[in-house]
Amino acid sequence: MQLGSQTVALGPSRGIPARDAPLRAQPESCRLLHHSELSIKQIAERTGFCDRGHFSRVFRGERGLGPAEFRKGGVGVTGRRDAGG
User: CA-CA distance, 84 to 19, in Å (whole number)?
Assistant: First the structure.
């Protein structure tokens, strides 16, 4: 993912500005972490991230905990358990 006017796919046949992808991917990534058996790498790819490491860093920066911790039922930045979107 690069910043600027480039777009990334997010959802079926949808492109959004790459700079907005982390914020818009968050509800979908939370839903997938809670309600799917997909690996974190697969979730990263489906939500437009170039790799698991980048996805994990952005997720931790926005939620206050990593995707694996979130999947295990951790508490995010809101101070309560997230219902997944």
Answer: 23
